[in-house]
Write a structure and sequence with these properties.
Layout (H helix, E strand, L loop, with lengths): L1 E7 L3 E8 L9 E7 L2 H10 L4 E6 L4 H8 L5 E5 L1 H7 L7 H18 L12 H33 L6 H5 L1 H12 L1
Length: about 180
């Protein structure tokens, strides 16, 4: 049984491997870093076995990465980042110690059955796409408010006194259109 902890970044990932089937004489623990390219993923796939358990920390690229490797391993677990910080408050959280920490957590989960973390469920692709629209909507609303505030300040700078309804109300805008047409 192969246990893998993966510290995932936007352009590379570091894997910590523990082989629970190896004898004492063999090196049972190792760490490797791969690029998130076709060549890097191909090299990573060669290290996987069908009895491998993988733990990946939740990041922006995790769902896409999990879709790529899910068919090559027995189980992939996505760890909630907040829960991981609560479990281990290590001062140095670089790639290798981070991957090793994830590997130890998946080892505990698989061998003892202890649920130290609750896994993140991967939503369907349609839900992921809809979730991607919400930040764009919030940004649009924020920019709209900024633009209205700017119009308001420019008019006040010119000593044009008004109420918000006179400028931003729908009825006022319609009256303005009708006046400009005639």
């Amino acid at each position: 049984m192969l246990l893998i902890g993966i510290d995932l970044h936007t352009n590379r990932f570091t894997c910590s491997y523990r082989d629970e089937n190896s004898s004492v004489n063999q090196k049972a623990k190792q760490t490797e870093t791969f690029d998130l390219t076709d060549e890097g993923l191909a090299a990573f796939y060669k290290t996987l076995t069908e009895d491998a358990y993988v733990l990946v920390e939740a990041t922006i690229t995790t769902f896409a990465f999990v879709r790529l490797i899910r068919s090559h391993v027995k189980e992939v677990v996505i760890a909630n980042t907040y829960e991981l910080k609560q479990i281990s408050l290590a001062r140095t959280n670089t790639d290798k110690p981070g991957a090793d920490k994830l590997c130890r957590i998946i080892k505990t989960r698989v061998l003892s059955g202890e649920q130290t973390i609750s896994p993140v469920t991967v939503p369907p692709k349609e839900i992921q796409e809809l979730r991607g629209l919400f930040p764009a909507y919030r940004l649009h609303k924020k920019r709209n408010t900024q633009l209205k505030n700017r119009i308001h300040s420019v008019l006040k700078e010119q000593l044009y006194w008004f109420t918000r309804e006179e400028i931003f109300d729908r009825k006022s805008r319609m009256r303005g259109r009708l006046k400009s047409v005639y």
